Amino acid sequence: VSRHETTETIAFSGVNPATGHRKSALVAIAGNPNAGKTTLFNVLTGIRAKTANFPGTTVEIKRGRLSSAHEDITLLDLPGMYSLDPSTPDEAVARTMLTGPEKPDIILTVLDATNLERNLLFASQLLDLDIPMIIAITAMDVADRRGVHVDIDGLRAELGCPVVAVSGRTGDGVPELRNVLLTTLAGRKEHVWSPCDLCRGCPISTRHKWSRDLCGRCVRAPLTPSAQHTEELDRWLTHPVYGLLAFLAVMIGIFFLIFKTAEWPMTWIEMSFETAAKGLDAVLADHLFKDMLINGVLAGVGGILVFLPQICLLFLALVILEDTGYLARAALVMDRWMKRIGLPGKAFVPMLTAHACAIPAIMATRVLEHPRDRLLTILVAPLLSCAARLPVYVMIVGLLVPDSPGKAALLLSGAYFVGIGAALGAAWVFRHTILPGKHQPLIIELPDYRCPSLRTALLFTLDRAVIFLKQAGTLILVFSMIMWFLASFPQTDPGEAVADGEHTITTELENSYAGRLGRIIEPVIRPLGFDWQIGIGLISSFAAREVLVSTMAIIYGMEGEGEESESFLDTLRQSRRRDGSPVFGIATCMSLLVFYILAAQCIPTQIITRRETGQWRWAFLQLGYMNALAYVAALLTYQILRFSGL
Amino acid sequence: MPINMDTHLTTLQADEKAVCPLSQLQAGEQGWVHCTTTAAANAPSLSGLGLFEGVPLTVLRQRDPMILRVFGTRLGIAHEVANGILVRKSPL
Predict the structure, then answer these.
(1) Whole-structure pTM value
(2) What is the DSSP letter of A79?
(3) Cβ contact A336–B50 (<8 Å)
C-alpha cells in the first residue's frame, strides 16, 4: 500500500454546482465501537443532536450541528462498526450513507490509541472511499499510562491527512479538531489523501501489513502492552460463578436504586396531574369536554407519563454500565444461560428492564445486533411482570391470602416466576417456529474498564425520554381518548340512574360501550370464572393494567376509598353471585392472576413494538399470542381448581 | 532455556498437529491464526475484530465463552465460533 499526496484543493467547496447555493456540509464520524466516537460527537454538537432511524430500518443515526461554528455543518454519528462489509444492519446502513448519493464531504475517523493497529484496518477501508478524511486519535492518556507513545506528527505525514489527538472526556484537542474541520471544509487544506489503486478491495492481510508497518513507524509500545487492571477485574467479573453473582448484585442494586429514586418524581408527576385535573374541574363548566380532558387526556397520558422517571433512570444506568465496559462482561456471563433458549447473552438486559416496564425494555433491545434476536426479545419481553401489574397482583393476593404475609410473598414471587417461565418458553417456541435459526454466537469485544462520561449518559437518556414523550403525546393520547369514549358513551340520563337507586358512576359504566362490551364478552370469559363486571375491568385494562383496580373500585361502588384498603378488599371478598357463591373465590382469583400475568393488555406496548419493528404485524402477533396464552392458561387454572373443589 | 527459532520453525512447518482449533488452546497459551473455516463464517466482522490469518493471540480463558487477547484488546468468543478458527500454537 502506498500513499500519494497532492497539492490540489479538496474537492469539497460546499457549493452546489447546479444551483450555486452553499449547501450544508456533511461530516460523518466513523470508527470501531468503543473508540470514543459518540463522546466526541456529543462534545462537538452539544445537546442539539437528534436521533432518527435510517429510512426503512431501525438503525439509529444521530445528527447534529457543529456548535460554535459560523458555517452550516452537519455531523452524523454513524453506528460503531468493525468493517464496511454489510454483514450487520448497522454496517450496511453506514456503508449506504458513506457511498450513497448523499455521501459526506468529510469522514472524521475516530481511532483508539491503545489499539491503533486494528483500528487502522477499518480506517484503510474508509480511505478507499475517496472521501477527504480527518483522523481523531482518542484514549491518548490511557495509551500513555501503558507506555504506548503515538507519534501524531508522524501519522499525519504518513497518512497525508489531518491527524488530531483528542479526548472527548476532558475536551483536550477539541478546539484544534474543530479548527481542522473548518479549515478542511473551507478548502484551505492543501494535502489530501488519495488512496492507491492497489489497496481497493485488497485482502485483509495486505491491509494488516500496511497498518502494522505504519504502527511500526509511528507507535512506540512495550512488548506486551496490557491492561493489567482490566484483566485482573475480568478474572472475577467474567467468572462463571462470581461473575454471575456480581451481575445479579449489579442488576438488583440498579433496580433497587431506580425504584427508590423514581418514587419522588413519580409522586410529583402524579400530584401535578391531580392538581391539573382539580384545576380544570374548578375552572371549566360541567361539560363533556371537561370530562374528556380530565378522564381521557389527563388520566390516560398521566397514567403512562408516571413511568417516565423509571424509564429515564433505567436508561441512565444502562448507558453508564455500557460506558464503563461492564455490559460486555454481563453479556459474556449470561451468554451460556441465554443461548439455551436461543437468545444471545445481551438479551438479558432488556428482559430485566421489562420487569420495570415493557416499553423501555423494547427500546433497549437495540443493544442486540441481530434483527432476529431483537424481534424475538421484543415479542416475549411483555410477558415479564412489569410494575403496572404489581397493583393488580397485590389486589388479587390480598383477596386470596389476607392474613398471611408469608404466603402472600410466596404467591407474589410465584407470579413473577410464571412470567419469567412463560417468556423463556415463548422465546424457545418462537425460535423453533416462526423465527428459526441459531442465535448469533457470541463474539464481543471486552473494552478496557473506564470512567463513564456523564455527559454522554445524560444526552442518551434525554434522547430516550424524548422518544417516549413523543409516543405518549401522539398514539398513546389517541388511545386514551378511545378508552375514555368507550367508558363514557352512550351517556346515561341522570334521572334514570337515581331512579334505579344505584351508584351513578356504576350505572354509567354499565350502560357505556365498555359495559356493553363486558356483557358481550361474558359468555367468552365465563369459562375462566369471570363475570361481566370483571369483563369491564379487563376491557378498561387495555388503557393500562393497573386501571383494573380503580375500575373494580368504581364497579363495586367504592370509588374514593383507598383501593388497597381493607374495606375495598372486604367488599370484593363479600360480593356474591346470584347463586350465593362468592364472586372472588379461589378459582376465580387464581384464574384472574394467571390471566393478568400473561395477557397483553397494554396498548402502548404494542405501539412501541410497531415503532421498533417497523411493522404492525409483530405488534398484532404479540397481542394475539399473549392473550391466547393468557386465555388458555386461565381456563385451565379455573377448570382444574373447580374440579379440585376449590 | 534459549530456543533455536530456526529449528523450531522447521519443526512447526513439518508438524501439522501444531494447527488446531482455537477452542483447544489452554489459558495462557499463545498462537497465530492459521485460517478461519466456514464454521466461523457466520460470525460477523471476524476480520474486523482482528481475527484473520497471521494474527498473534493469547488465550486468557479457555472456558466457553473463551477470552482472548488480540491486538491491544480482548475478545469474548463462543466455542462454536472458536472451533471454526484454526490456530498454529506457538511454543511456550
Answers:
(1) 0.77
(2) P
(3) no
